[in-house]
Amino acid sequence: MPLLTRIEGALSRSLVRCAGAPPRLQQAMQHAVFPGGARIRPQLCLAVALACGDDDPTLADAMAAALELLHCASLVHDDLPCFDNADTRRGLPSVHRAYGERLAVLAGDALIVMAFRELGRAAGRHPERLATVIRWLDEGVGPPDGIVAGQAWECEPSARLDQYQRAKTGALFSAATAGGAAAAGADGHDWFALGASLGEAYQVADDIRDVISDPAILGKPVGQDLLLGRPSAAQELGLDGAVIHFDRLIDRAISSIPPCPGEALLRSLVLSEARRLVPSEGPAGVQRPMPVQTATPGDSRTASVARTVREH
After folding, report:
1. Which of 1-10, 184-193, 211-220, 246-255 shows the lowest mean pLDDT across its residues?
2. Per residue in 228-258, pLDDT tens?
3. CATH number of 3-278
4. Which of 4, 142, 199, 235 has the highest CB neighbour number within 10 Å of its CB?
5. d(Cα 245, Cα 92) in Å, to the nearest integer?
6. Cβ–Cβ contacts within 10 Å for residue 131, how many?
7. Confidence class of residue 293 from pLDDT cuts 50, 70 and 90?
8. Tens-digit pLDDT profile for residues 80-108
């Protein structure tokens, strides 16, 4: 079964189990989860589970759903007036714009609880794995280094860029790869580095797009890092430097994939996501000059993206 089909099915089932809740709360939760984005975190989770044998797909699907529910909850809270005060998310009104601030807070809270509930319901076949899977999920979300800490660093007078990015984005990616392995009975520590590198690359790409992207294409407001004084690779390294750093992180992520039957699938997923996040081409219909130099031998993407960045 395709990964996205498994993910969408698991998410749909989790929301169906909320039948009977106040109708507008259900609607707000549905709005937060569907339609989704790239679902890269749950895709990584299932890809690693498959690479490790995927002998308990029920638990792997629950872990994938839990990751996406927590990610969606973080977006709902991130968009609130007390943080980014964002009007749009994924090209639609943010939850607090569509349903009000009170229901947005409650919807985010509900999605967090649902994430751990999904795991508890899926532990029948291998209950001995549940504690390890939950531990990886907890480390990706809670303090000191999870996404809650990442959001909290925005409330501090200053923060180190690497520390902020590891918590804000990298932690849930690491939870995805390590948790996917643990759901299949493998050692999550062997897969932690893949998630850490890809998560940091994802945040660097987000920093780049916050500077150069069109809100209509990105599906959310841009220019927020500078406006809100958040740490940003694009500001600290410059746009060219951020693109070079992104490519190095992608290379590091690929090289960290342990030898396994699913190595080709994982490599393909990482490269596909890299092209989606920071494409080498400019906007549709605009021809870019050939790059005059590259930061990594044999890779023309860095310089061509850097040129696109400079011109936009």
Report:
1. 211-220
2. 667 788 888 888 899 999 999 999 999 999 9
3. 1.10.600.10
4. 199
5. 31
6. 10
7. very low
8. 999 999 999 998 999 999 999 999 999 99
Contact status, residue 160 vs residue 100, Cβ threshold 8 Å: no
| Residue 133, token pair as written in the block | 């899977």
Predicted structure pTM score: 0.84
Say whether 88 sits in a helix, a strand or coil: strand
DSSP string, 25-69: HHHHHHHHHSS----HHHHHHHHHHHHTT-S-HHHHHHHHHHHHH
pLDDT (0 to 100) of residue 80: 97
Count of C-beta atoms within a 10 Å radius of residue 283:
12
CB 257 within 8 A of CB 263: yes
Domain ranges of the chain: 3-278
DSSP state of 89: E
Question: What are the φ/ψ torsions at residue 49 (nearest 5 degrees)?
Answer: -60, -45
DSSP secondary structure string for all residues of 281-310: S-STT-PPPPPS--SBTTB-HHHHHHHHHH
Distances (CA, A) of 282 to 289, 301, 312: 10, 11, 9
